[in-house]
Amino acid sequence: MKKVITSLLILILLLSVLTACGAKSDEVAKVLGLDVSKGEEISNYDTHGGSHGDGTTCIAYRFDDDTILEEIKSSSEWSAFPLDDTVQALVYGLSDGTTHVGPMLNDNEGHPIVPEIQNGYYLLIDRQNDATADILHRYSFNFTLGLYDTDTNTLYLCELDT
Predict the structure, then answer these.
(1) CB 153 within 8 A of CB 64
(2) Amino acid 24: pLDDT
(3) pTM of the model
(4) CA 104 – CA 137 distance, rounded (Å)
(5) Is residue 114 a contact partner of residue 156, using CB atoms and an 8 Å limit?
């Protein structure tokens, strides 16, 4: 009887893990409009929590081929590198010699979460309720950013909520 109960508990645990992994890739697919089911999750940084849900999330998927790249290229929503100034400031920071902005997607020590990408595509989704002001001149941030590194076949889904 103990073996049956132990086996059932292990089965339930495995099913919940598999369901959670599928749910995560489904969420990425919904947000970015891409089928990431053939990718391998290689990192997951998440500081969201608390009563307001503020925090930073960045999930990275690596792909064996460039199938996802074909999906990105066929979408009119994704832009090819180089990054525009806004996305550059959000991901890596931007400096003009007198002022410095960002990076907004950073670890607790102010370092960028996303490794430097030389070649790729990006998609910025502004989720701010009142998007009248320039995203870099607001008191809070609510955005989703998709980045695809064509050199490493790596897709990043990042979200910042403040």
Answers:
(1) yes
(2) 58
(3) 0.80
(4) 12
(5) yes
